[in-house]
Design goal:
two-stranded antiparallel sheet; 5% strand; 2 strands; flat; 3 helices; mainly alpha; 84 residues; disordered N terminus
């Protein structure tokens, strides 16, 4: 990916092009094994971190555990003006 926008300018500037790269955390010096194991959600860390580090997986897991009784849903629906 090439970024060619000069600081403070709205038009591209070819002489100030910067190449950006994304590196996996495992390739960054001094990254701890605990951190890389957490990001990989390795079985070694799962007992200590009950939720995945990936937000979409965490949100799906949490959403499946929500339990609201029908009267609560009805009150919220009335407050928001949404159809029941």
């Amino acid at each position: 990916m090439i970024s060619s926008v000069q600081h403070g300018a709205s038009k591209p500037c070819e002489e100030c092009a910067v190449e950006a790269q994304c590196l996996p955390f495992a390739q960054i010096p001094h990254t701890t094994r605990l951190f890389t194991d957490f990001l990989a959600y390795s079985p070694n860390v799962q007992p200590f971190y009950p939720h995945s580090p990936h937000f979409s997986e965490w949100a799906k897991s949490e959403a499946s555990t929500l339990q609201y009784d029908s009267s609560r849903r009805e009150r919220v629906s009335t407050i928001l003006g949404a159809p029941e």
